[in-house]
Amino acid sequence: MASFPIVRMRRTRQNEKLRGLVRETHLNVEQLIYPLFIAEGLKEPNEVASMPGIMQWPLEQLGREVERVAGLGIPAVLLFGLPEQKDEVGSEAYNPQGIIQQAIRRIKAATPDMLVITDVCLCEYTSHGHCGVIKNGSVQNDESLTLLAQMALTHAEAGADIVAPSDMMDGRVGAIRHTLDEHGLSGTPIMAYSAKFASGFYGPFREAAGSAPQFGDRRAYQMDPANAREALREIDLDIAEGADIVMVKPAMAYMDVIRRVRDRCDLPIAAYNVSGEYAMIKAAAHNGWIDERRIVMEVLTGIRRAGADMIITYFAPDVARWLKEE
Hints:
The chain is an alpha/beta fold. The protein has a single domain (27-325), classed as Aldolase class I (TIM Barrel, Alpha-Beta Barrel). It has eleven helices and twelve strands. It has helices at 16-21, 59-71, 99-110, 141-158, 172-182, 203-209, 229-241, 255-264, 275-286, 292-306, 316-325, and strands at 32-39, 46-47, 55-58, 76-82, 115-120, 133-135, 138-140, 162-165, 191-196, 245-249, 269-273, 310-313. Strands 1, 2, 3, 4, 5, 8, 9, 10, 11 and 12 form a ten-stranded mixed beta sheet that branches. It has a two-stranded antiparallel sheet with strand order 6-7.
């Protein structure tokens, strides 16, 4: 008589209820963060050509959009500002009446329970498009820290729940923590873009945020995509400086890094499912090459499986609807 296996892995795969009982990784709407672009001077929402469905929002219509997002159960938004005026030192970034500072107040007035996270970086506000002060053709690390800390302070004073430095200057988490604490804002958490790689996946974002560098690139301060051990050093340093949440960005090509970070530290981990990842899936789905819903859910589940506690994704509203349908 033929020998048959005693252990049959397929036994618990026979139907959806069985598969649900043994499912190891769960994706929930409470884990999603939705990025929003707010543009000064706009009268109507402007769709980003390389990111179908993603808008640059005028300040006057922001409250209604955030109410829609809140209605889907999404707990948090991440704000990026597009000022009308830019200069060499990004003055509008830390203007208490700047576009993001105004946006925070409007969101809190319309939807007080929405968590507002703000991106802290100068690239959207500088005329040269780099993430810090430029001297002799290069970004000055220490001179930039003061401006970044002031930017974070004005966000927190306007009502931001979390500040998220993405500039990759050395020591910026410590500088921001010190400044917030000094001004009585010790309860404001820092979500650090700790392992932010110099990636080709950021192209559509630079169109959406108007933040493309006017010369050179950002490889002198963002991480080399080839390095994982270095990412762990960045994580350790940000934790030592007072980070409350650490981030890996991008997500899809860096799931091994997410896993390494998860194995190394107990802090909450965010992963950013970035613009290029969004655009590729949208383009393939538009051409009928893939099932968009199935692929998106698979990708985000994979990011969770790698170890991320929360996911920043442009797919958040779609995913929120799909999860309700399941």
